[in-house]
Amino acid sequence: MVMAAGLGKRMRPLTATRPKPLVEVAGKPLIDHVFDRLRSAGVKRAVVNVHYLADALEAHVSHRVKDIEVIVSDERKQLMETGGGLVQAREWLGDGPFVCVNSDNLWVDGPIDAIRQLAAAWDDAKMDALLLLVPLARANNHGGQGDFHIDAFGKIVGRRKPGRLAPFVFTGVQILSPRVIRDWPEGPFSTNLFWQRAIDAGRAWGVVHQGLWFDVGSPPAIPATEAVLADG
């Protein structure tokens, strides 16, 4: 699943006339970078949710995405946030674990394809969520204080506490089991609800990304990202 329904408020004024996934970085829209990574990992089918300026985004994925079947989950009537977006799209996500990717981040694979790395690490017997994490010190353009703590084996053992730092940042790339999509509240809500259940059950894990990752959340992040990519 590709999460593409957000309002892109932090990316204003660039999102006044286009949805955030269509903002260009390094010569192509953010969502095209995501589909490049999905394609290289062998993904053949993707659900994309749409809300803000949905017509433009739906037209783009319909005409520009090649070699991957795209199903649009329509949130025009109400933005469901990340958790609600998963609930609305659940009928298309199947009965097995699936990749879920935010469309507003950009990463470069290291020695290992990041999505294939996640897939290789997935253990259905002990996992409900497997998140691709990047060390806070390597989270380009990221102004936050980290998200998660993991143990020596990769199990997520806690979230960042107020006033403290956490050593790992969520990259927006993950594998989830449909088991987590249950007992949801009415209306929009965050995937944090599903994550916390998995953490509490000892079934949330992390894999550390070996390549580059960029938080492309605001206009100044675009030239900063492009400068690093140009050096590569």
Automatic annotation (TrEMBL):
Leader sequence residues: none
UniProt keywords, alphabetically: Nucleotidyltransferase, Transferase
Boundaries of every Nucleotidyl transferase domain copy: 1-219
Cross-referenced InterPro entries: GlmU-like, NTP_transferase_dom, Nucleotide-diphossugar_trans
One Pfam match: NTP_transferase
Transmembrane segments: none
GO molecular function: nucleotidyltransferase activity
Lineage top rank: taxon: Bacteria
The protein, known as: Nucleotidyltransferase family protein
Species the sequence originates in: Sphingomonas tagetis
